[in-house]
């Protein structure tokens, strides 16, 4: 399989990131009633996290959390995310980056865990590419941004596998049914195959070996496609059992960078 052209890979990553941000923004819009005055996540409640911040910082976040400003921000964020489907420029990517950081600060650093951090990683890669393009070096910027994302994405899988590897509960398979018992559909039924020790151990070792071997994706673009396809199935299963739809979109946006990097390594 021939290597991905950096400009084409960057466009794919930007478009996938745009789709991811559209989903995230629509979800935030659905939460407006809970974020407004009297809601369970009203700023009067969340602002306590900034009690020790300076007055200007508290005032700035109080202004951002205002109903009108928050509504305007999300509307502009949605428009910028849609724009990413067709291309990107430094003002757009910077706006999305800064706005995303501000949203995550409001949510104590993360709204949906790892998917938020991976979104920041991909946004950073796009900002790197756009900044270099603004300075007249689009090819260098595309390559730098793609490699930045690829390194973080591959590391995320490897570290996840390594953590499981050193955990005796994961090596024995006992952690898997416990983990799945916390899914959106409640505890696994008594007849679930995942309660079988052999099945659980085989599944656990499958995850461990796949995640720990993810750096091998850099061996060849075709190998990278195989790893990414497996990752897509993995994230869809996580969505199926835990309802974490953001994870599907957040990591999907990293796949063009991984396949590109595999053609350059």
What would you say this structure looks like, in words?
73% of the residues lie in helices and 0% in strands. The protein is mostly helical. The protein has one domain. Helix 1 (6-30) crosses helix 8, helix 5 (67-84) crosses helix 6 and helix 8 (138-165) packs across helix 14 (255-262). The chain is flat. It starts with 5 loop residues before the first helix and ends with a helix. The model has no long low-confidence stretch (mean pLDDT 93).
Question: What's the short version?
Answer:
This protein has 265 residues and is mainly α.
What characteristic shape results from the CA principal axes? flat
The termini sit apart by 14 Å
Number of domains: 1
Characterize the largest beta sheet: strand count, sense, and whether it forms a barrel: none
Poorly predicted tracts of residues: none
Estimated share of beta-strand residues: under 5%
Helix count from the secondary structure assignment: 14
How many strand segments? 0
Structural class: mainly alpha
Percentage of residues assigned to helices: over 70%
Write down the secondary-structure element order.
HHHHHHHHHHHHHH
- The chain-level mean pLDDT equals 93
Radius of gyration: 20 Å
What key attributes describe this structure?
single chain; 265 residues; mainly alpha; flat
Describe the secondary-structure layout:
Layout: H1 6-30, H2 32-35, H3 43-46, H4 55-64, H5 67-84, H6 90-106, H7 114-134, H8 138-165, H9 168-172, H10 175-181, H11 197-212, H12 221-242, H13 245-252, H14 255-262
Helix pairs in contact: 1-5, 1-7, 1-8, 1-13, 1-14, 5-6, 6-7, 7-8, 7-13, 8-11, 8-14, 12-13, 12-14
